[in-house]
């Protein structure tokens, strides 16, 4: 429900994490999918936190499902 009401995808906490970072931190694949249906802007998908980690970096570190990593990778434009 929170995701459906979220209007400020660019909001970050004191560590620079946005809502997509947290969905990846908590390995919540349904939330990641829902967020990416709502916002695929590069500023959202490629946002770096204070540790210079993007949501993709966190997803890889947490070994999220390959389809999630593939989607994040394709949207990030990084090699």
Written description of the protein model:
The structure is a single chain. The protein has a single domain (2-76), classed as Ankyrin repeat-containing domain (Serine Threonine Protein Phosphatase 5, Tetratricopeptide repeat). It is built from 6 helices and no strands. The chain has helices at 2-5, 19-25, 29-38, 42-45, 55-61, 66-76. Helix 2 runs antiparallel to helix 3 (29-38). With 79 residues, the protein is mainly alpha-helical. It holds the Pfam family Ank_2.
CATH architecture: Alpha Horseshoe
Coarse structural class: mainly alpha
CATH topology: Serine Threonine Protein Phosphatase 5, Tetratricopeptide repeat
Termini separation? 34 Å
Provide the succession of SSEs: HHHHHH
What is the count of β-strands?
0
Radius of gyration: 11 Å
Percentage of β-strand residues: under 5%
Low-confidence stretches: none
Number of domains: 1
The CATH C-level class name: Mainly Alpha
Largest sheet: none
Percent of residues in helices comes to: 40-55%
- Principal-axis shape equals globular
For this structure, what is the CATH homologous superfamily?
Ankyrin repeat-containing domain
The chain-level mean pLDDT equals 88
InterPro entries: Ankyrin_rpt (IPR002110), Ankyrin_rpt-contain_sf (IPR036770)
Pfam families: Ank_2
Write the layout of secondary structure elements.
Blueprint: H1 2-5, H2 19-25, H3 29-38, H4 42-45, H5 55-61, H6 66-76
Helix pairs in contact: 2-3, 2-5, 5-6
């Amino acid at each position: 429900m929170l995701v459906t009401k979220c209007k400020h995808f660019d909001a970050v906490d004191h560590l620079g994490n946005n809502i997509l970072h947290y969905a990846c931190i908590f390995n919540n694949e349904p939330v990641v999918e829902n967020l990416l249906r709502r916002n695929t802007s590069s500023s959202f998908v490629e946002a770096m936190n204070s540790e210079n980690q993007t949501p993709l970096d966190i997803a890889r570190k947490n070994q999220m499902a390959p389809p999630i990593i593939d989607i994040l990778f394709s949207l990030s434009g990084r090699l």
